[in-house]
Amino acid sequence: MAAMDGPDEFTDEHRSVLDFEKHWWRHQGNKAAQIQARLSLTPARYYRLLNAAIDHPDSLAYDPMLVKRLRRLREVRKARRRRSRAQGDPTALTPGSDRTS
């Protein structure tokens, strides 16, 4: 984020991450490589920004269908991890092990 942007501001970087998430699958190559090439971000930074973007209230005005879908997918993944942990699945402890996007 730019130095002038406040912590609660919906920025161009948030918009760029949402736009990329909406269309990344249309391009060749794996997602991590595309994140680095197109956005100059590490995958870890990208996913932090993506989560911040979909949590931001202004994101719904920017792309309501995408944001609702991403929120829903995130909740499904969290529920799956909780169930797996409750059942003693050691892979449930690995962040990102169930990432489908």
Topology:
Layout: H1 12-23, H2 31-39, H3 43-55, H4 57-62, H5 64-86
Helix pairs in contact: 1-3
> What percent of residues are in strands?
under 5%
Return Rg in Å. 15 Å
Shape: globular
Report the uncertain regions: none
Order of helices and strands: HHHHH
Helix content: 55-70%
The SS-based structural class is mainly alpha
Count, helices: 5
> How many beta-strand segments?
0
**Largest β sheet strand count, sense and barrel closure:** none
Average pLDDT taken over every residue: 86
Measured between the Cα atoms of the first and last residue, the distance is 24 Å
Key phrases:
5 helices, mainly alpha, 0% strand, 101 residues, 62% helix, single chain
Please describe what this structure looks like:
The model has no long low-confidence stretch (mean pLDDT 86). Helix content is 62%, strand content 0%. Helix 1 (12-23) crosses helix 3. It is an all-alpha fold and 101 residues long. It starts with 11 loop residues before the first helix and ends in a 15-residue tail after the last helix. The chain contains 5 helices and no strands. The longest helix is centred in the last third of the chain and has 23 residues, at 64-86.
